Amino acid sequence: MSTGNAFYQRHFLRLMDFTPAELQALLKLAADLKQAKKQGREPRRLQGKNIAL
């Protein structure tokens, strides 16, 4: 099943498992999620969950 998310069911085990572009995308996603949480508008799929950033 494809979700359209390049990181779906992938684990961050080694830095070398990701391309530079994927790492930049992960950092941007993390920053966006952190900002959304601070503003009280975290995505529903993340409500009640902790995110390690």
From TrEMBL:
Keyword set, alphabetical order: Transferase
Domain Aspartate/ornithine carbamoyltransferase carbamoyl-P binding: 10-53
Enzyme class: transferase
EC number: 2.1.3.3
Superkingdom of the source species: Bacteria
GO molecular function: amino acid binding; ornithine carbamoyltransferase activity
Protein name as it appears in the record: Ornithine carbamoyltransferase subunit F
Organism expressing this protein natively: Serratia marcescens
